[in-house]
Amino acid sequence: MRVRLEHVGCGFDALPPLFEDLNYDFRPGDKYALTGPSGSGKSTLLSIIAGWMEPTSGRVARDGINRISWVFQNPHGVGPRSALDHVALPLLAQGLRRTDAEAKALALMDSVDLGSIAHRPFRQLSGGEAQRLLLARAIAADPQLLLVDEPTAQLDRHTGESVNSALEAISARGTIIIVATHDPATREACTHVLDLGKHRK
Ligand SMILES: Nc1ncnc2c1ncn2[C@@H]1O[C@H](COP(=O)(O)OP(=O)(O)OP(=O)(O)O)[C@@H](O)[C@H]1O
């Protein structure tokens, strides 16, 4: 199982390319920080890696990757539904009984410091809580590749550390994790750094 960038480049319209000739291997059990200034193409590269967007040049090889989860910078959920329901849903879809799904969902929510808001409706969550909730849901889906866009941007240090620990725990299960981040603590918590600032043309 791995994801490989082969001579990947991308640009929009007549603008200069964001990046060109990116060659990179992403492997299970490692955490990759995708860094670079605002506008350098981090979210664009996540879209390309996920297969949502074709690169302008080169290709992405995804070997043995069937389940991809993506936690967006701007989280969306179902307003009136409880936070717990959001995390339990993928577990129910995997065939767990509701009591087991909810117990597992609650443990995942605890791991990102959300145990106390489990029964609140999604619409009452703050931006940082909503994004952590969707991280817990993404982990519940048991992905082989987890893409996360700026998970700690809206968080205080302690909460940011719990997010980094949750990423560590899922990485230890063999998931490939790629995190677009400006946060030095998240970058430090990763095993590798791919800096798009250095690939700008
Ligand atoms: N569909 C599009 N058409 C034209 N330009 C686009 C499109 N999508 C993104 N861009 C431009 O490409 C550049 C890279 O955007 P991207 O969101 O990938 O950057 P980023 O590194 O994730 O930025 P940030 O750190 O601010 O989130 C930006 O200048 C953006 O305006």
What labels describe this entry?
binds adenosine-5'-triphosphate; five-stranded parallel beta sheet; 6 helices; 201 residues; Rossmann fold; 35% helix; alpha/beta
Architecture overview:
The chain has 201 residues and is of the alpha/beta class. The protein has a domain at 1-67 and 146-154 and 176-201: 3-Layer(aba) Sandwich (Rossmann fold). Helices cover 35% and strands 23% of the residues. The protein has helices at 42-50, 83-93, 98-111, 127-140, 157-172, 184-189; strands at 2-10, 19-26, 31-35, 57-63, 68-71, 145-149, 176-180, 192-195. The strands form two sheets. The protein has a five-stranded parallel β-sheet, sandwiched between helices. A three-stranded antiparallel β-sheet has the order 2-1-4, with helices on one face. Helix 3 packs across helix 4 (127-140). The chain is globular. Adenosine-5'-triphosphate binds next to helix 1. This is ATP-binding cassette domain-containing protein. GO terms for molecular function: ATP binding; ATP hydrolysis activity; transmembrane transporter activity. Keywords: ATP-binding, Nucleotide-binding.
List the helices and strands and how they pair.
Elements: E1 2-10, E2 19-26, E3 31-35, H1 42-50, E4 57-63, E5 68-71, H2 83-93, H3 98-111, H4 127-140, E6 145-149, H5 157-172, E7 176-180, H6 184-189, E8 192-195
Parallel strand pairs: 3-7, 3-8, 5-6, 6-7
Antiparallel strand pairs: 1-2, 1-4
Residues 12, 18, 36, 38-44, 180 line the site of adenosine-5'-triphosphate.
